[in-house]
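Recall from the previous lesson that a structure prediction takes nothing but the amino acid sequence as input. Here we apply that procedure to Metalloendopeptidase OMA1, mitochondrial from Ameca splendens. The sequence below is the only information supplied.
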Amino acid sequence: MRALPAPLLWMVLKPLQKLLAILLGRSLRKWWVALPDNRRQLMHVWFRRRRWHLAAGLGVTLLILALLLLTHLDESPVTGRLRLLVFSREKYMELAVLTSEAHLEEFAEQLLPVTDPLHQMVEQSVQLLAQRNKDIPEVSKVPWSVHVVESSQINAFVLPNGKVFVFTGMLGAVADVDQLMIVLGHEMAHAILDHSAEQASLSHVVDLLSLILVTAIWALCPGDSLALLGGWAKDKLMELMFNHPYSRKLEAEADQVGLHLAAKACADVRAGPVFWQQLDLVDQVTGSPTLPEWLSTHPSHRNRSGQMDRLIPQALELRETCACPALPPIDPRAVFSKTVHELLEKAKEQGVRGLEGTHEPQSVSTPAGLAVSQNVLASSSKVDWLNKDRVPAVTSPLPAAAGKESQHVLQNTSQQGS
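The prediction returns the following tokens.
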């Protein structure tokens, strides 16, 4: 029987640590309440007399803790950003093996065969990304393998050991192979940047420090009900102040690095912002409830599109240095913007409900004289195999929304780049 990896062991012990802190704080409160008044007065005097000794002890403890954290600083691959890593990549690889085994067992009945065109499409995309980015050690030393799960869930993820899981719902949400490669690049970036280990390290340190707060809350609150409320408020503040902002920061970094991975693989990186505009448009048209960004672990679709749009010039410069074929002159961002504008105009004329509050995507100018296709998201359910130098493109409808007009625009995407 193999030992549990350190990150998994920490996750198992995490609830027990919190329970012990609650019991300790509650015991201190009951002990203090049970003390006679004269004993309490003596305790106050004792603390006042030794306050400087206690402050010095606290200072030394904080200094030791800071030095300990400094010894676990690590430089992030690709970006060079300094971050805290309590758990090593090797320890997380052990956890990734267990996680991948669990996922393969969970999705065993839903996995597409390797001969399926959708699986082959994703396989070729991943291998192209890996081959074109083999100058990055974290990419070249990982054996990338693909598993396509038949599910309507719009999701994809990559484990640190190179196991790529893509749901067919995601293949229906991307408009073309360029968007697919940008999505895969984003997920691969999470893996090569060790974001799971980094996030777990921060969570581990914050949770250990918060045990002091948990003990203090249960010791100082006059009743259990108030202590429970204080603990809940503490958890929510930790999420809003540390966990959610840090998670959004890692998502933005994965967007940037993933866009560069896709650029080196000769994808049309201009399709990246369009993908998030599509998801934003679908949410608006279908009326899907969305959380404010500050309550979410991910940036909003609109902010994500805007941030990626600002990264496009740098990604295009990188693409030009990689001996890639020239991009078509028509910018997919402009095509999408024009199509959505025409959709909204038609919806206003015909009184289609559900589109009144839809925001138009930011327009991108196109060279004069270039016709912009109105059928930006050409519908098809088949996989079109391109030439041997390109991975195949997938086209399948995005979720349909208000009426025939919206369904026409939310069809999957143009093949301008093919």
